[in-house]
Amino acid sequence: MGVRTVCFLLAVITDGWLRWVMIAAALVLPYLSVVFANSGRERIEAFPGVAATTPKAIEGPASRDS
Q1: Does 21 score more than 90 pLDDT?
Q2: Mean pLDDT for the chain overall
Q3: Cβ-based neighbours of 6, under 8 Å, separated by 6 or more
Q4: Cβ contacts of residue 12 below 8 Å, gap of 6+?
Q5: What sign for the dihedral angle of Cα 17, 18, 19, 20?
Q6: H or E stretch including 4?
Q7: Mind giving me the DSSP string for 7-29?
Q8: How far apart are CA 33 and CA 51, in angstroms?
Q9: What is the torsional sign of CA 8, 10, 15, 17?
Q10: Rounded Cα–Cα distance for residues 8 and 30 (Å)
């Protein structure tokens, strides 16, 4: 957010094409921050080269149904 604030301040101070670059940067930076923060949250089912195994069920006493 600090960089975005600096972009807004520079947009007020500067003139010409640099003003538009600063405004565009101030508008795009929050979107890029959210995309970057949310990346990598996908679950990896198995690591490459490692066989996936299913957990075995715990065996308990047999139920006696009459």
Answers
A1: yes
A2: 81
A3: none
A4: none
A5: positive
A6: helix 2-13
A7: HHHHHHH--THHHHHHHHHHHHH
A8: 36
A9: negative
A10: 13
